[in-house]
Amino acid sequence: MLDHVGLTVSDFARSRAFYEAALAVLGVFVVMEVTEEMTGGHGAHLGFGVPDNPFFWIGTGKAPGSGVHVAFAASGTAAVDAFYQAAIAAGGRDNGAPGLRPHYHPGYYGAFVLDPDGNNIEAVFHGAAQ
Asked: Which residues form a coiled coil (predicted)?
């Protein structure tokens, strides 16, 4: 079971703005900030999640080598749609518009957006289409 996941980003401010906008509609917010000084020179980091549980992190460091796929659980199809719209408006690039993906399983409803570094960020609802 995963506890948290982190991505290195090339432009911390741009990525912060993207993730704040894209994840807010899913109820995921910045809940922890760690400065470069706090890490003793090992980068600045933002923890997104819910109170007392930062489970998705972005941070400075070496430039990303290849894209990563991260999927966030959504409460319904409307939340997936809202994520997609917010992420595109925040500078994300389409990588799969909201819709059913029955080849994964019946009721799989997801949307995919590439973040500013090309990582594949998804919102998914596992249930009957609403």
From this structure: none
Q: What is the pTM for the complete model shown? A: 0.87
Question: What's the domain range around 44?
Answer: 5-126
Q: Give the pLDDT confidence of 57-109 residue by residue, as tens digits.
A: 999 987 666 679 999 999 999 999 999 999 999 999 999 999 999 888 899 99
CATH number of domain containing 97: 3.10.180.10
Q: Are 125 and 79 in contact (CB under 8 A)?
A: yes
